[in-house]
Design goal:
single chain; about 375 residues; alpha+beta; Rossmann fold; D-amino Acid Aminotransferase, Chain A, domain 1; 3 domains; six-stranded antiparallel beta sheet; five-stranded antiparallel beta sheet; 9 helices; nucleotide-binding; ATP-binding; YheC/D; ATP-grasp
């Protein structure tokens, strides 16, 4: 039987190295097992309907370049770290609209918040969020919630995020990470000093200001949960797994790229909730919410393949959505030793792609 072809749309970091190459190698190996040839390329590799792809040769243990036609189905793994990337990918999708795409692009953090706020079922899970307008408005928001996060609306991986907490009537603590993910030294200041410091950070309407959820554990480190929900080989949503992440000391984020540690969901929940019944009810609520959110986002944006949800659980056990990512990593499951979950997380996009191709063939056969 002829192999199916799956194109993986990727992006170059610094013009030569591909982001996520280790994941693509794993995807290629799983693809060979399922009869799918994984072909990796970037928009820059496309000339007309010809494309210069990378395929992994398991026998030789290396990547091979070859010129071929565009694959019929595309798995988009490009992260929009810059506006230029976004425009380049939009241009590719517009030019090649007849290809099958496993997913559609989602909105930035501010537009996403507005979209999600329209749903009465999802709204209770959202921290209060506003678009940055001025330092005086930010200070009003801070005095209302006592703890806030300031995030670039297009940021990923914890870049450029600030955490500001009011720790006494006129004392504030500013912490964060810069655009390179490096930890910013904690800064304690009164209101006037804080305003001066914020002026130097060049905040703009490209940032959102979000109500903070208390995520600090007893040892002072922050934590959250990464839930992965994916389409399976029948084209239906299924929760693949959920794991905990704990940030390094003095970090305000838990991202693994920023030095975070992965732990099992149960272990992390047990740090705050000794009751097994309470832990089970929180896990159940997380899963139910994940299905609700995935269905709603498909209604709003079109067909999707997978979603990574960053979830917080407050001291009372309430579930909050911090962020949703249509191009999630699955590394967290490998880090906690859940190899079967990790393998499932790699395999599911391939199984979903095969299902999408079979659906297209059925339609084509009926139209013949």
């Amino acid at each position: 039987m002829a192999q199916e072809r799956l194109g993986v749309l990727a992006i170059y970091l610094n013009n030569s190295r591909l982001e996520e190459l280790a994941y693509f190698k794993r995807l290629s190996k799983e693809g060979q097992r399922l009869g799918v040839q994984v072909e990796v390329f970037t928009p820059a590799d496309v000339q007309g309907n010809a494309v210069r792809t990378l395929t992994f040769d398991s026998n030789r243990g290396r990547w091979l370049r070859k010129y071929t036609t565009l694959p019929p189905i595309i798995y988009d793994r490009c992260r929009y770290k810059a506006a230029a990337n976004y425009h380049m990918l939009q241009a590719f999708r517009n030019r090649h609209a007849k290809l099958i795409y496993l997913s559609k692009p989602l909105a930035n953090k501010w537009s996403m918040h507005q979209t999600l706020s329209q749903s009465t079922a999802i709204r209770p899970y959202l921290p209060a969020t506003v678009r940055y307008s001025s330092i005086s408005e930010l200070m009003k928001f801070l005095k209302k919630y006592k703890l806030i996060y300031v995030k670039p609306k297009n940021g990923t991986g914890g870049r450029g995020i600030l955490r500001i907490e009011q720790i006494s009537p006129d004392l504030y603590l500013l912490q964060g990470r810069n655009q390179y993910r490096s930890i910013i030294a904690p800064f304690r200041a009164n209101e006037r000093q804080l305003a001066i410091k914020l002026h130097t950070l060049n905040l703009s309407p490209d940032y959102v200001v979000q109500q903070g959820i208390h995520l600090t554990l007893n040892d002072g480190r922050v934590h959250d949960y990464r839930l992965l929900i994916q389409k399976n080989g029948q084209g239906e949503w299924e929760v693949t797994g959920c794991a905990g992440r704990i940030g390094p000391h003095r970090s305000i984020t838990s991202n693994l790229h920023g030095g975070g540690t992965a732990v099992t969901q149960d272990r992390l929940l047990s740090y705050r909730f000794p009751s097994p019944e309470k832990r089970e009810s929180i896990k159940e609520e997380m899963n139910e919410f994940a299905y609700k959110l995935a269905d709603y986002l498909e209604v709003k944006f079109g067909k999707l393949c997978e979603l990574g949800m960053d979830i917080a659980v407050d001291l009372k056990g309430n579930v909050w959505l911090l962020e949703v990512n249509p191009k999630p990593s699955r590394e967290v499951f490998r880090r906690i030793g859940q190899h079967a979950t990790y393998q499932k997380a790699v395999t599911r996009p391939l199984e979903y792609a095969l299902w999408m191709l079979s659906q297209k063939k059925s339609v084509d056969d009926r139209n013949d």
